[in-house]
Amino acid sequence: MSETFEQILQRLTIATGQVEVREVGRVVDYRVIDAALPRAPRWFTGYGEGHPFVSAEVPEDFRNAWVAHEVLCFEAYRDAQGNQKPGHCANALAAEMAYVPDARIEEYHRLRRDFFRGMARFAELGGYDPAFISEIRGSRDILETLVRGRR
Asked: Is residue 36's pLDDT more than 90?
């Protein structure tokens, strides 16, 4: 019998965390998981089956922002039919900046840019939905501009 997604997450969990996602009006519990998740990029986050998680490689100060991004994409930026609204990833990216310590915002932008670069390649190679890839590329491009503007 194969493991469920929840069982895999449980097995790989090395810590837990909580973040108050103000935009959805609640505290969200999440898991910090070992990077041993099969086929995962270097840094990752997700909202698998309603269970937010983030990889242990994401710096601790940034985990709440990464999880907030996922919660916003999957809970806040949906239409009446439950579909993600166009621009949900860029909107979540803008909102997540409020969860980043001010003194580390430039570092955060670089790390998120690198994440979205890798995630775009991962999604393209994995044959993900073109609309999803477009959302990721949009966030990557925003971060490319932010990082370039600081040079």
From this structure: no
Quick check: 151 pLDDT over 60? no
Phi, psi (degrees; rounded to nearest 5) at 56: -60, -20
Candidates 91, 71, 72; CA nearest to 138 is 91
Residue by residue, DSSP assigns 97-116 as GGGS-GGGHHHHHHHHHHHH
Helices (H), 13-129: 60-71, 88-96, 105-125
- Domain positions in the chain are 5-148
Q: How far is CA 140 from CA 2, 108, 114, 147, in A?
A: 35, 13, 8, 10
Contacts of range 19-28, beta carbons closer than 8 Å, 24 or more positions apart: 19/63, 19/64, 19/67, 19/68, 19/71, 19/99, 21/67, 21/68, 21/71, 21/72, 21/75, 22/98, 23/68, 23/72, 23/76, 23/95, 24/71, 24/72, 24/75, 24/76, 28/52, 28/67, 28/68, 28/71
Give the integer Cα–Cα distance in Å for 129 and 13.
28
- Whether the full predicted model's pTM is greater than 0.70, yes or no, is yes
